[in-house]
Amino acid sequence: MKRFLAIGILLGLIGYTVYTQVWVNHKEEAVNSSVDAQTNPFNPNEKIGTVINKGDLLNKVAPDFTLETLTGEKVTLSELKGKKVFINFWASWCPPCRDEMPEIQHFFEQHPDVVVLAVDLRNTEKSDEAVEKYITENEYSFPVLLDRTGQVGESYKVLTLPTSYFINTKGEVQYKFIGPLTLEKMKELANTLN
């Protein structure tokens, strides 16, 4: 009797293992076949990881804003007209944003001709201290602006983090990029700004 019980348990374990493996594979295939990994889930017309050079804001004057930095200074976008500006919308809890931050730091150090503004969606963060701690611990020196209400993010139609905008010297949005940028891509886009 014990022998039959042991065989039954063994067969049950084998059956369960086979069932779960088939189910997991089936689930992965269903997900991979129904969703394009590059499609922005919030806007199917946009692809994550590609340069977007047409749309509502593109080739128009960038929506103006005034935001405070972590140190309490105020920055107004329209006062930067005549300069190339790279705006990056991010949050400290966002893994792709965290991956991108060292690249932004390198870009900031290597391209003093481009104004870098890292706009933290502060309304999604725990506290100012959490943002400041992240920036300080990683020794980032580019300006971090706090979008406390999320209104600036809304005006720039930010649905996915990170999202970046490249503003030309006329104050117009020339490029939008959804997803983390590499240093090379930042340089390429900045070098083609008017």
Automatic annotation (TrEMBL):
**Which SUPFAM superfamilies does UniProt cross-reference here?**
Thioredoxin-like
What Pfam families does this protein map onto? AhpC-TSA
Query: What are the Thioredoxin domain coordinates in residue numbering?
Result: 56-194
Keywords linked to the UniProt accession: Disulfide bond
Give a yes or no for keyword Disulfide bond in this entry: yes
Domain of life of the organism encoding this protein = Bacteria
Molecular function (GO) terms for this protein are: antioxidant activity; oxidoreductase activity
- The protein's name is TlpA family protein disulfide reductase
The organism is Bacillus mesophilus
